[in-house]
Amino acid sequence: MTWSGIIKRFVVGSVLVFQVWAAQLPQRDTSIRINAARTLHSIPRSIYGTFLEPIGNSIYGGLWAEILQNPSFEANLWVPSQIVDMIKERPELAKSSGMTLPLPWEPLDYAQGARYAPHWKDTANSYQSLLLMALPNQVETGIRQRVYLPVHRINTYVGSVYLKLIGGPAEVRVSIRKSNDKEKVFAAETLHLAGTDWRRYPFSLQVPVGQLVPLEPADFVIAVENGTRILIDQASLVPSDNINGMDPDMVQMSRALKTPIVRFGGNFTSAYHWRDGIGPRDQRISMLNIAWGMPEYNQFGTDEFLDFCRLIGAEPQIALNLGTGTPEEAAGWVKYVDDHWATGGGRLWELGNELWGNFQVGYPTLSAVAERTKAFSEAVRRVDPKARVVATGADPDNFGEWNASQLSNAAEAFRYLSTHFVVTTNDVVAPTPSPDFIAKATFALPVGIERLLHEMHNQFSTKPEAADVKTAFTEWLFWAPNDTYPRYDNMGGAVAASSFLNMLIRNAPLVPVADMTGIIEFGGLWKKRGRVYGVPAYWAFKMYSTADASRVVETQTQGEVYSVEQGSTRIPTIPDVPYLDVVSTLNEAGTKLTIFCVNRDLSRDITARIDIAGFSSGPIGTVRTLTASSIYETNDEVQPEHIHTRESSVSISTPAFQYTFPHEGITSIELTRR
Fold first, then answer.
1. Given the DSSP bridges, would you call strands 416-424 and 315-320 parallel, antiparallel or unpaired?
2. What does the pLDDT read at residue 12?
3. Distance, CA of 529 to CA of 218 (rounded, Å)
4. Do the Cβ atoms of 334 and 349 come closer than 8 Å?
5. Which of 496, 524, 545 is the last residue of a domain?
6. What's the CATH number where 486 sits?
7. Is residue 607 one of the residues assigned to a domain?
């Protein structure tokens, strides 16, 4: 019986038995043969695209440097389920909300009672302002919000607030104080009001070094006294080192990825109207992000997105609103971007997002999607004939009818058909799966996707007018409800992501565009309690996206395989999955050979003999590895680089050498031509 037969039998029968036998059976010889003289295809940089959407804290609370939530004092910015979660985390917000304060603002002193009222008919921004009424004495009456300041990096914070004097002394005090201790003031400034009209008042607050510990909460306070009554609207508090409104750590770590394109899109696209996010920021309206039930402040709009792309050296890729939008609105966005981007036209424009889902606001039906795609495509191409249009395709495991409808359009309607694979890793067919079974099923998914991609392109080939259509993999993510499963933010997610990147490299002629979910949050950067860090998948992605690798060369790997039955509900059967997943590349000059290897084995390091033809290496190679003691380990704000890429060297004495690849690990070996 072969090794793969044993594995298949025991995965189906008993995962636990399989794990015991796997530990006892000897390792079969593993070999990697590389013929660097045979180039298979080039690697477009565009497979290393990333994805940005206002979801969670990806933009607000993440990339965007604004520290305050709900700075315009609005109501109805969160759906009830989100409010329940907020109050579960911070029960005191239920009391402050009951005092008519908009979430997540609180009274400076709860004991003072009802000194606050929403105001709808007199605002500086959006739909609502807040009336603050001081007690008739020298005791402060105010509002506060819990904030986390990046004091590990910067101690000066600048901001502004719109104020309108109703009565009393014309003074307002803004400050940063110890959380839940109004007497401990770290920094304060008194604002002297001029007149009784709405006016913007800037301020600067410097927290003394060492007074506030990194990751410790503080309170931002706006207060009055002696009977003063004021209306408050549109407050702001940002670190003084912000870059055009963006977090400098986010910008720096995003730039380090060298991602060539950033996709601005997602479920929010189908209810997003781009004109809401242009013009003076203090005049933009705060509203509900319908897709995710959270605030859309519109502070980060088209100009800010283009600025972010410039700062990190990426091209913009934008998903247009085919839900509540119109072809005319889409054409206007295309023109606006072309007018504001130095290289003019020729951008990637995606016609909608996951339009096949009834969760998508204003989704078209199967019978209507081709016609709607055609109308938007024509509108886009009238404005920009060079536009590279991406039509909404279906996922690789359920593409038949939907893609057939889209392919009924004429060839000029689109250049790419999108696909997504956002998979829930713990959702498997097996009734009582062990953690190891789920991990191995997850690591096998890129192999299953690779095979399905070829089926998708076989469908393209049946239509002569679609012969040149390629796939744009505009979202891919390994998701789970928590980190006890392999998912985007732990080491298991990094292993899966690297296998996915190997798959993209091998299939670049079919899939020349791909966007990892996402550059911020999920598989990329996170910000918690004021500190920015990358999850393990960020470091894995960086290993690939920054490599000097532009051509795939012939690579043959012989070694052990395993098979999955009753695995992911998306692709339950995946036979013959190699434990070692290897691709090899050359740079454009042919002077560097890079070997990318993912070891999917859960417990064993695998030693392989590597034979190289067509490339005479120097004596020392550079090795980069990403490993952890467990696939469930991750990084966080306390240990931001607990897992990160580590560099070492390997001696190369002959055209053949041995290397031991760590289990559940990612390795690249870079050789320089002698």
1. unpaired
2. 33
3. 10
4. yes
5. 545
6. 3.20.20.80
7. yes
CB neighbour burial string for 576-589, b if at least 16 within 10 angstroms, e if fewer: ebbbbbbbbbbbee
- The pTM assigned to this predicted structure is 0.94
Which residues lie closer than 8 Å to 190 by C-beta, 6 or more apart?
171, 172, 173
Q: Which two tokens stand for residue 500?
A: 């996915």
Residues ≥6 apart with Cβ < 8 Å to 653: 619
- Residues 125 and 299: their CA atoms lie apart, in Å, by 12
Distance CA 171, CA 397 (A): 63
In a domain, 457, yes or no: yes
Element (H, E) at 38: strand 30-42
Nearest-Å Rg of the Cα atoms of the chain is: 28
Write the pLDDT tens digit of every residue in 233-249. Answer: 999 999 999 999 999 99
Give the total residue count for the chain. 674
- Find out whether 264 and 304 touch, Cβ atoms under 8 Å: no
Residue 47 contacts residue 54 (beta carbons within 8 Å): no
User: What DSSP state is assigned to residue 345?
Assistant: S
User: What is d(CA 436, CA 617) in angstroms, rounded to the nearest whole number?
Assistant: 38
Q: Are residues 225 and 357 in the same domain?
A: no
Query: What residues does 581 pair with on adjacent strands?
Result: 598
Smallest CA-to-CA distance from 239 within 58, 68, 65 is with 65
Report if residue 397 sits inside a domain: yes
- Per the CB < 8 A criterion, the answer to whether 555 and 584 are in contact is yes
Number of domains forming the structure of the chain:
3
CA distance 117 to 131: 5
Q: What is the pLDDT of residues 506-561, one digit of tens each?
A: 999 999 999 999 999 999 999 999 999 999 999 999 999 999 999 999 999 999 99
Residues in the chain predicted with pLDDT less than 70, given as ranges, are: 1-28
Q: Is residue 581 part of a domain?
A: yes
Q: To which H or E segment does residue 492 belong?
A: helix 491-506
How many Å separate Cα 295 from the centre of its chain? 18
DSSP helix/strand/coil, 224: strand
Q: For residue 437, give the 3-state DSSP assignment.
A: helix
The CA distance from 45 to 212, in Å, is: 43
**pLDDT tens-digit readout, 325-347:** 999 999 999 999 999 998 889 99
User: Which of these, 162, 184, 188, lies nearest to 175 by C-alpha position?
Assistant: 188
CA atoms of 624 and 547, how far apart (whole Å): 11
Residue-range definition of the domain harbouring residue 612: 3-41+554-672
Q: Is the peptide bond before 534 cis (omega within 30 degrees of 0)?
A: no
Exposed / middle / buried, residue 157 (Cβ in 10 Å: 0-12, 13-18, 19+): buried
Note whether 445 and 593 are same-domain residues. Answer: no
| H runs (alpha helix) in 295-430 | 302-312, 327-340, 366-383, 400-406
Q: How far is CA 207 from CA 188, 249, 309, 322, in A?
A: 9, 20, 32, 47
